[in-house]
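Example complex used in Figure S2.
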Amino acid sequence: MTRTYLKKFLHEYGPFALLVLLTLAVWESAARLKLVPAFILPAPTAIWTAMLEQRLLLFREHLPATLQEVLLGFVLSVCCGVLLGTGMHMFSPLEKALYPILVISQTIPLIALSPIFIMWFGYTLWSKVAVVFLTAFFPVVIGTYDGLHKSGAVYKELLLTLGANRWQILRKTQIPPALPSLFSGLKLSMVYCVIGATIGEWLGGSRGLGYFSRRMAGNLQSAEMFAAVFLLSALGIILFLSIKLLENIILQKRGIHR
Amino acid sequence: MGLYCVAVHMKGGLAHTNMISMTNLSYSFSTSPEAPVFSGLSMNVRQGEFVSLVGASGCGKSTLFKIIAGLLQHTGGDLNVLGTISSDPSLRLGRIAYMPQQDLLLPWRTVLDNCLLPWELNRTGSKTEAVRNIRNMLERFGLEGTEQRYPHELSGGMRQRTAMLRTLAAGHKLMLLDEPFGALDAITKRGLHRWLLELWGSLEQTVLFITHDLEEALLLSDRIYLMSGGAGGGVQEFLVDLPRPRHYRMNYEPHFAALRADLERRLYDTYIS
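Predicted assembly (531 residues):
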């Protein structure tokens, strides 16, 4: 039983693991042989050592700060995004008014807006949450809005002849098929949240992995900087996978198959 | 809910009450009012009758169904459905059972939950009662044991029967069935005819039925309307004087064959005229 499981696991992830190991080996030897200076590319083992040395600062101080910004921004994005997407689906004037604004909001370079955010919110948590929200709510709106349109007119007509009102049509035949699309939006949004938080911390602040990595880069402490970047990436992966897990559970429970 | 077990086939006494009647009904898209989808349509469906509608593809049969069901507004003529003439078609919504061409079972719901949909929307009576009703019907529809299955686990014939059950579960006396057996293979279709003819007498429904299959129309209907679309269209009535109760093997009888030949000829005439 465990053997076949292992076999399947190796078949699925073996090539990936092999490539990572190979890259790490080449990287490590290049660093050991001093082909590249350590401040440009530190050895993987040096990054690991740096992470262990800085573990208190990284895990007690900066990771929780970033996680807080990410989660707050995500919850805000999901609430606003789902409401906005549903509102645009239900009320066509709202859709006509908001869709262009949404697209415009995504074309504004965030970095250019950052001084304004700092002026509005100061160097607080909320200036970062604002950046997170602006990067992460768009996929949720689009995922919700497009998802709700999936079921099409035929189900709507059927439900109308059964005497349903528009909210019943939404609940019974539009939300269930919208879930896969909504979850695609959520997964994208989650990853964007981590990126948004990092950008927010770069712009100003005193806590968080983004702030830490920037400070370390300024000091030419590349190993520490890479440790923080690695943690950020790991955070993104873990959060992404938790949404995916939630998706699998909910879709399976509701009998929706992609 | 809407299942009435009456052993005898209801005809005669109640047969003069019109469930649907229309005079000179026409429909055209607002973009091209000079080229109607159909026009000059006059017909009626009496209580307890099974009436079929045949005609070329695109002559507006499905559009007519949507108008009767209340999804569309006719553009000319008079329409009286269930004894009410109303200019607002949405008042008809929720009063007539309508089964569209595709089965439209919700793929994320089990057979039982699909059939409970009409109850969920109206919430008349208790849920236990509704479930018990559906369970009884599932048995009569030959669907026992499938209630926890999802639509993709069913055969085409079972899906159609489930969809028909859901349509019946809405509890309306007038049913519009748009080619319910159109997508099935010949053998499955035969099986469903046999099943429907056995079940029909006890359902006490009034049915307007769209089909392209002339044998099906003759086997099931009391009357058939031949419909042709466009500006000069209209309908022709065709009486099916086969005795009831009908049997699915009737189509081998000489009288049936004669009716079929006659119907085919008249349908052909509407094509070329």
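The beta strands of chain B are 18-27, 38-46, 50-55, 76-81, 97-99, 174-178, 206-210, 223-228, 234-239. Chain B has a mean pLDDT of 85.
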